[in-house]
Specification:
Blueprint (H helix, E strand, L loop, with lengths): L1 H7 L5 E3 L8 H9 L5 E3 L5 H14 L5 E5 L5 H10 L4 E5 L7 H7 L3 E5 L3 H10 L3 E5 L5 E2 L5 H12 L5 E4 L5 H9 L4 E4 L1 H4 L8 H9 L5 E3 L12 E4 L2 H18 L5 H20 L24 H20 L1
Parallel strand pairs: 1-9, 2-3, 3-4, 4-5, 5-6, 6-8, 8-9
Antiparallel strand pairs: 7-11, 10-11
């Protein structure tokens, strides 16, 4: 983990996945203060909102933290400028290949760029383009997911790219033994989201947390795409009436495409905004039946509300014990 920790400027190379409405100032600062690496989920925020969120996080921690930006955000370059003004040390780009000029703009401020690579060919392309670190995330993760499992991605990609730059593994990680396994395979660290969503410091509504505590791995299901012309990145969440609402939303957007009312880019943006709204209903308002309760398959390992420091300490103890056993 030394390589990942040195890259992040932290005690442990454990990132918190950026969860919209959950990964805000309180959880981010708590994770960074406890020796991990908190990441603000910018999501659909305006530059003004992100500016306020970064300032509020800096008031709660002097430790390093990052900001996750969605590549399809219409004001991406303005958001990058906000990060630069605040001298944010690490910017995570999610949601597709970085648009032209975005990497240069981030690096010009002295920040490191972390990108998601759901396939080996894409990872190699991103390395050539100059990214500083990669996250390889499997389909067990919560929120937006790719089609391949974490263990397969790790086996295929780590031997090929782990020497070139720090690689963080994500998706379905709930215990330290799994962390030890990926470190053994060459990862520089890991990223977890679901495990932190119900931390004491998380502002998620009590109903949202209760839904996690009741759920098993098989309750966290991926959304279905209903129209091949509307490429919707699947989202993993706990099954509820909100899943049906999303199917209806896709039909509505597909019809607008048919009628020529919407362009493809705008259609995809509408889907993104739908998820942001549905997630807010669950996380903030506590409507876990009609909102989107995004969760990874590790949700079955989330049993109770614990402080972030306890979660991190437990993960590290489990990982250390597993590595000691292998060395014996």
């Amino acid at each position: 983990m030394a390589r990942g920790a040195a890259f992040l400027g932290t005690e442990t190379a454990i990132l918190c996945g950026a969860m919209s409405w959950v990964s805000e100032r309180n959880l981010v600062a708590a994770i960074s203060n406890a020796g991990g690496f908190g990441v603000i989920a910018c999501g659909a925020m305006t530059p003004e909102l992100l500016d306020a969120e970064i300032a509020a996080t800096k008031a709660l921690t002097a430790k390093p933290f990052g900001v996750n930006l969605i590549t399809m955000h219409p004001q991406l370059m303005d958001l990058i400028a906000v990060c630069a003004r605040h001298q944010v040390g690490h910017v995570v780009l999610a949601g597709g290949l970085p648009p032209a000029g975005s990497l240069d703009a981030i690096k010009a401020s002295g920040a490191k760029v972390i990108c998601f690579a759901p396939a080996l060919a894409l990872a190699k392309k991103l390395i050539r383009s100059g990214v500083d670190a990669l996250v390889i995330e499997g389909m067990e993760a919560g929120g937006h997911i790719g089609p391949v499992s974490t263990s397969v991605l790790a086996q295929e990609m780590l031997p090929e790219i782990a020497e070139a730059l720090p690689v963080f593994v994500a998706g379905g990680i709930g215990r330290g033994e799994a962390i030890a396994g990926y470190l053994d395979m060459g990862a520089a660290g890991v990223q977890l989201g679901t495990r932190f969503a119900c931390a004491t410091e998380s502002i998620a509504h009590p109903n949202f947390k209760k839904a996690f505590f009741r759920a098993s791995a098989r309750d966290a299901v991926a959304s279905v795409q209903i129209d091949p012309r509307l490429p919707v990145i699947p989202v993993r969440a706990l099954k509820n009436a909100g899943s049906e609402l999303f199917t209806a939303k896709q039909r509505e957007v597909a019809q607008s495409l048919d009628e020529g009312v919407l362009a493809m880019a705008e259609a995809q943006l509408q889907i993104e905004h739908y998820w942001a709204g549905a997630l807010r209903r669950a996380v903030v308002d506590g409507d876990v039946e009609h909102g989107s309760v995004m969760a990874g398959q590790s949700v079955g390992m989330v049993k109770t509300e614990e402080p972030v420091a306890v979660i991190l300490a437990t993960l590290m103890e489990e990982a250390a014990a597993a590595l000691d056993k292998r060395a014996a």
